[in-house]
Specification:
two-stranded antiparallel ribbon; 6 helices
Length: 240
């Protein structure tokens, strides 16, 4: 598991993956080298962070993270990339990242699955409008050429996508706790300045995170099964 920012820990997602049988090796690229290969690993998770996906001048290790994510795609190693992670995945595989023209998304919100999600091994069993936690200013403005769009929202078209048959990017967060989100809000007042009153109310966040758990803990369990080779991958056949 790649953790690009100390302020975005594995938190509940780490607990869900471990409970499903995964053994986590958490790598913090700002403190230690990023693995050059994925030998010995069955899957990869890349968490979020406050930096931009192309802020190499300030965070030179971002290039190594993008290289590893591209390596995961080419080697067909199951990958789950979250928020900044999704942007890094997109940038590494031919997509484009930009500052969201619609402004930041913040708080517990809904995203809507696209029709293609009905045939996806991880997304098929999700409700059509699952709860997620949003906290981002940047977005994937253009999907990679080989990507399949899986979910959208009114302010951000590319909320979830798959590159190849087992690399997933989600613009939203599923790993957070209410305390983590409140810490972000305190640390980045410019992001939450235009948020509607009550969106970051602790009780509302607590209730929203329970809704998120109900949906996304089984999703995390399916990702562990995918990494273990226990989920069937349905490949699309070319049409002539």
């Amino acid at each position: 598991m790649l953790q690009p920012d100390a302020d975005d820990p594995p938190a509940r997602l780490g607990e869900w993956l471990t409970a499903a049988g995964a053994v986590l090796d958490v790598v913090k690229p700002y403190e230690e080298p990023v693995p050059a290969t994925l030998d010995g690993y069955q899957g990869v998770v890349c968490l979020g962070g406050a930096m931009g996906a192309l802020d190499d001048a300030v965070h030179p290790w971002l290039a190594d993270v993008r290289k590893l994510l591209s390596h995961a795609v080419s080697k067909r190693v199951p990958l789950l990339a979250i928020c900044l992670g999704a942007q890094l995945l997109a940038a590494a595989t031919g997509g484009q990242v930009r500052r969201s023209p619609a402004g930041p998304e913040v708080g517990v919100q809904l995203v809507a699955k696209r029709d293609a999600a009905s045939g996806d091994p991880l997304f098929a069993d999700l409700p059509w409008t699952p709860d997620v936690l949003q906290f981002h200013e940047d977005e994937v403005g253009l999907l990679p050429p080989t990507a399949l769009l899986l979910a959208s929202s009114p302010k951000c078209a590319n909320q979830a996508f798959r590159v190849g048959d087992r690399a997933y990017g989600v613009q939203f967060h599923i790993e957070t706790t209410p305390d983590v989100v409140l810490g972000w809000a305190a640390g980045y007042p410019e992001v939450v300045g235009g948020v509607r009153p009550g969106v970051l109310d602790p009780d509302r966040l607590t209730a929203g995170h329970e809704d998120i758990r109900e949906v996304w803990q089984p999703f995390a369990e399916r990702f562990v099964r995918l990494a273990a080779g226990e989920l069937t991958i349905h490949r699309s056949l070319p049409l002539v």
